[in-house]
UniProtKB/TrEMBL annotation:
Pfam families: Gln-synt_C. SMART domains: Gln-synt_C. GO terms for biological process: biogenic amine metabolic process; glutamine biosynthetic process. One of its GO terms (molecular function) is ATP binding. The lineage of its organism: Eukaryota, Fungi, Dikarya, Ascomycota, Pezizomycotina. PROSITE patterns: GS_CATALYTIC (PS51987). SUPFAM superfamilies: Glutamine synthetase/guanido kinase. This is Glutamine synthetase. Belongs to the glutamine synthetase family. Keywords: ATP-binding, Ligase, Nucleotide-binding.
Amino acid sequence: MQSTEHRAVDSEQVTITNIAQQLDQDDKVKVGGIDCDGVIRGKIMSKEKFLSSLEDGFGMSSAIFAWDMHDVLYTQKNSIANEKGGHGDFIAEIDLSSYRRLPFESNIPFFLLRFKIDNVPVFADGRSIARSTTLTLANKGMRGLAGVELEFMNFQTPGQDGYESLGQRPNLASFLDANAPRALRPITGGMFGYSVSRPLMTKDYFHSIYDVAKELGCPIEGWHTESGPGVYEAALAVSSSERMADNVSIFKFLTKALGVQYNVTPCFMAKPLHGMPGSSGHIHISLTDLDGTNLFARKDKDESAPFDDVAHLSDIGRQFLAGLIDALPDIMPMVAPNVNSYKRLVENFWAPITLSWGLEDRESSIRVIAPPTCKPGATRFEIRIPGADLHPHYALSAILRAGLRGIEREMNIYLPPLSQMPGGQKPDKLPNTLELALARFQAPNSVAREIMGNEFVDYYAITREHELRAWREAVTDWEFVRYIEHV
């Protein structure tokens, strides 16, 4: 993949001095860090407080890693943030290179954060994990490039009393308190992927997303409707893997912010509606050397390759693929993090359900993209398991670390491509529930523990167990409709 990376701050060197100059006319700044659900958590700071924090950071409550996306505390104790420690502060370090302005919020300056405690990066902080992964690759003379394709459904945001007050201030929570989720209406009906006419129905919203994404430094390469009611797909322009993780988070933020202006609620659930295709978050990944040469590409076709599908892959590319194949069943919670993630991973909906790979094979978990269908410099892997609900920093870091493990161990590909499975033999199925995925993720000898560390695995498992517990205790609309009369 060829990088078209955009920096939030144009090529000038980022220093405290020039950031201070950039903020000369401002009196407040917005900052945000990313929690274990991939949600940006932040606040407004006075410019004076912000500038005084540029060198040493500022305190921010560790509670953001002690509760779920609805601010409910985890019931299991964990080592990162707990009552015994009083949910004390982390030190939030301001990432100056993340500077951008938010055009949908009075052009306020915005910066992303990383978190430390006792001068050590918080082991569950996704941005710190992504930075560590980048540095590990750089020390080996490598650089990760990534592209992410995000599909998402868009609903009309109802007013306080329902759809008759669409012109008033929207209140989705109040509407859902009084109505079933299926009462929400997508902004367009029917199924029409790659439509040139459907976006015209909400053209201001549609085009503003593209324009603001470019303005915020997370440009879109391709932008179109996807199959499903009110579904859009954004292919974010290739960048460094670390930058791409930030771009996914910023893209979701800007889309939701613009949705407020247009009374639209964008939905990044992996499976919003029963009977409809899910919303994917496909990850394209490659490695280059520090000069930008693709390390997965082979100079000449290997006529003696173990499989025709890897004839144009370098030895490093094959080892990276072998590492992915070996790791995927054990890192599923990092690429499919929620209960709902696994509702998307079902048959007949263009989503993978098996541990599989193949050249240009969109039915497999890992699609190999290599010559002759692309230029050597664009050789890459598309990991098709993630949905739009992915935590981008966790998912990209896990994928890169899994591939690097394959390179370091010089692994061989033990599994034939999906199209060449021996007669009657089927590939192993991936874990198809969060519960099964967690069992593999936190097993004593899991690949996840090897590449992510025990501290992270133990903590993240607690957060996912919390999701499972909340799901088990919920009474769903399906249950109510099915049983209200007949039991």
